[in-house]
Amino acid sequence: MRISVTTVDPRADLSALHGPDGSGLKFLLGQYVSLMKPRIIELLLITTIPVMFLAEQGVPDLWLVVVTVVGGTLSAGAANTLNCYIDRDIDAVMHRTSRRPLVTGTVSPRGALVFGVALAVVSTVWLGLLVNWLSAWLALGALLFYVFGYTLLLKRRTAQNIVWGGAAGCMPVLIGWSAVTDSLSWSAFILFMVIFFWTPPHYWPLSMRYKDDYATAHVPMLPVVERFVVVARQIVAYSWAMVLTSLALVPVQQVGWVYTAAAVVAGALFLTEAHRLLAKAKAGAAEDVLKPMRLFHFSITYLTVLFVGVALDPIWHLPLPFFS
Questions:
Q1: Cα–Cα distance for residue pair 287/318, rounded to 1 Å
Q2: C-beta neighbour count of 158 within 10 angstroms
Q3: Kindly report the CA angle at 245 between 242 and 251, in degrees rounded to 5?
Q4: Which residues pair with 7 in a beta bridge?
Q5: By CB atoms within 10 Å of each CB, which of 79, 172, 231, 258 scores lowest?
Q6: CA-derived radius of gyration, the chain
Q7: Is residue 9's pLDDT more than 50?
């Protein structure tokens, strides 16, 4: 059985929306920064910096880390700003996003567009001149795919939007690796695929929680168009793919006990939580019993633990018996 999607005119509620109180340069700068979605950028940094440690097989040059992080932050901020510009009609009818600056009018659409394009140009030049051009082109490619591939092409057309669109969020591991080595490797691609498989189990629980919001905005997220039990089955499938892919790094990179322990323990807990969600969905539990946000929040913990293992393994390398 499929669930129908209802829509409303995204302009209908705009007159009732008010932005946060404030004025002056500091307030305006804060509104522009919020367009960059700093909390999402934090997740990108969780993956970028540890991969630089792994690529260096130790502590990378601090200056290189700083300029890579700054460039990556500006590039991700550009992508998020342009996403806000394109999706301002959707944001206006979703409770979760109804106080974003473009909805409330504290930032004009033209101002956001200019800001986003300027960040894209600055970040590409910054990475090209201060890191290397491979990293710059990877960051620009991720930005363009997120804006044109996900936001404009996939998001409003397919329930698999976050699966393929999430590939843009995998790019920071390639950028971090290329920043150190000016090349790519199988280890970097394995970590790319870990995040690729991680994205649906991370985002679909959030979509389950805000299913009505997405339905109102006519965004066909999987939990909107399918029963929760179908969504939970796919979450479990992607979770197993994620954990198994994370373990593929062990023989390819010949990592030691630190990373292996992080991958096994965090992976086992993630699978336990994913199967809990599936069991409750099979039992027909309501959303308040299903508690999908438990998995959403734990997915962030999982990613943090795994990539802390990525960073610490080359520093405190304790080889596994079959690699010693």
A1: 44
A2: 16
A3: 155
A4: 217
A5: 258
A6: 20
A7: no
